[in-house]
Amino acid sequence: MSPLTAALVAQQNPTDRWWWGEWLGRDTNQELILDATREHVVLTVAAVVIGLVLALPAAIAVNRHPRLKGLVLGTFGALYTVPSLALYAILVPYTGLSRTTALVPLVLYTLLILVRNTITGLEQVPADVRDAADGMGLSRRQRLWRVEMPLALPSIMAGIRIATVSTIGLLTIAALVGLGGLGQLILIGLNRPIRTAVTVGIALSILLAVGSDLLLAGVGRKLAPWSTPRSRRGRSGVAGPDERDDELPGAVATLPDGAVTA
Questions:
Q1: Number of domains composing the chain
Q2: How much is the average pLDDT of 92-117?
Q3: How far is residue 54's CA from residue 79's CA, in Å, rounded to a whole number?
């Protein structure tokens, strides 16, 4: 069959079209798309939140005991290299085709990203800022949550963005255990076959990933406005009064909780 003939046949068979408006207009299919999108969002949020809850204590432990860094990152790195299909094959006999089966691999894959970024953020806190916090009488716990964590927030948010986008992509594989969100549309489109379902599943996955990244980037700027580079020089190129003051010896620095230190 020539390519031209194949194209004509594809046009005659609506299921072979990559975009079939009639299929999208059916109520049952629209409900299927909404349910798949909702499930994709819920599973992604759950995986990232659980991963963050597990990653923060691990990163704090490494920050207090640096000797644990190699062990912690090595362990999570090894888990990250395990193929998701292998994990599903191991979990299904014990957890069945359940939401737990879909979440466990996704959570494990977020741990390396979140722990590494949190450790990096805590390590980048300047020593003089820690000394200033100690000089103000803050306890070790107060210094962690009132000084170190706010300063590490840009790095933590970067890890959350990466983990969220990667989870959105990996979640499509969970369709093999019946909980793949938009991956179910792709699987339906490949099995029946209905190419429009594949197009919708891929397009919505990309939109979710891009939208989530932009949303989290905006949240990060709101939570840590000092991390956004800003130019305070006027059009003439001359530094403003505030900028000149910052360059003077002994300039006053402000800690994230509002405390002031010289």
A1: 1
A2: 87
A3: 14
Each residue's pLDDT tens digit, 216-254: 999 988 887 776 666 444 444 444 544 444 443 444 444
Of the chain, the percentage scoring pLDDT greater than 90 comes to: 25
Say if residue 229 is preceded by a cis peptide, omega within 30 of 0: no
pLDDT tens per residue, range 154-204: 999 999 999 999 999 888 887 777 776 787 777 776 777 777 778 888 888
pLDDT category at 24 given cuts 50, 70, 90 is: low
Q: Which CATH number belongs to the domain containing residue 127 in this structure?
A: 1.10.3720.10
User: Residue 111: inside a domain, yes or no?
Assistant: yes
Task: List the beta bridge partners of residue 260.
Answer: 254
Q: Is residue 5 part of a domain?
A: no
Domain of residue 148 covers: 32-224+240-261
Residues 6+ apart with CB under 8 A from 60: 122, 144
Write out the two tokens for 175: 């369709």
Residue 7's alpha-carbon distances to 2, 14, 20, 70, 191, in angstroms, are: 9, 12, 15, 56, 21
